């Protein structure tokens, strides 16, 4: 088998794929899973960034902030989500 295969990235196609509705729906699904696993007091924010959609899960009340700082609630929720990376 030849090891001289060359792969050329189609940047316009990749940009379209990453900024499309499918990517946004995948982010919404993954973010919702993290919010559900994190518990109450967390919110999901999605917006269109300059190149791709951006998804954030943020604590919205004091108890959630404390859980994030003390117990790493979001890190644990992300691990419990078993999201494909």
Beta percentage is: 15-25%
What number of structural domains do the residues give? 1
The geometry reads as elongated
The separation of the N and C termini measures 29 Å
Topology order in helix (H) and strand (E) letters: HHEEHH
Q: Which oligomerization state do the chains in this entry correspond to?
A: single chain
Tally of strands:
2
| Structural Rg | 17 Å
- Tell me roughly what share of residues is in helical segments: 40-55%
Which structural class best describes the helix and strand composition?
Answer: alpha+beta
For the largest beta sheet, what order do the strands appear in spatially? 1-2
Mean pLDDT: 87
Poorly predicted regions are none
